[in-house]
Write a structure and sequence with these properties.
Number of helices: 3
Strand content: under 5%
Radius of gyration: 24 Å
Low-confidence stretches: none
Length: 152
């Protein structure tokens, strides 16, 4: 099997310019977020067409994001001094991420994998909502105790 290597060069030869119609290509769009400045070609958009490569990239991206949410939740559950405001933000962000997975990644990943991801997100949301419930119960108990101790 031959290895294919591609190189992109920028020159002033205008006879060999190729125009690519990106709307006709069905693939996954990626916008590079590099902040490294160099004298090479600037890439504003990358369209990945190979379905296997799309699947690998999306699975890695989703895994990183879920691990970040899980790490935050584990740190938050270990901390008992929290007030719950950041917990609501993470819960909102997690529901937004669920919508991104449902509507943007579903066409590139299999339904079985998407269902598994949604179950994992459900577990994370359950833990967050349970922690919010516990914090609310503690707040109500403290309010009742403070009102009861001030009565004459």
């Amino acid at each position: 099997m031959a290895n294919n290597h591609y190189s992109i060069t920028k020159n002033s030869d205008t006879k060999n310019n190729i125009k690519i119609d990106f709307s006709a290509l069905s693939g996954f769009d990626i916008t590079p977020k590099n902040s490294i400045i160099y004298d090479g070609i600037v890439v504003n958009k990358l369209v990945i067409i190979n379905h296997g490569f799309i699947e690998k990239i999306l699975k890695r991206k989703i895994k990183r994001k879920l691990e970040a949410y899980l790490k935050f939740i584990m740190d938050y559950l270990a901390d008992d001094d929290s007030d719950g405001s950041s917990l609501n933000e993470v819960l909102n962000d997690l529901s937004r991420y669920r919508e991104i997975i449902n509507y943007r990644y579903r066409k590139h990943l299999g339904d079985g994998y998407i269902d598994l991801l949604l179950k994992k997100i459900d577990l994370l949301e359950y833990e967050l909502k349970f922690k919010l419930y516990v914090l609310e119960e503690k707040r109500i108990a403290l309010d009742e105790n403070s009102i009861g101790s001030k009565s004459r």
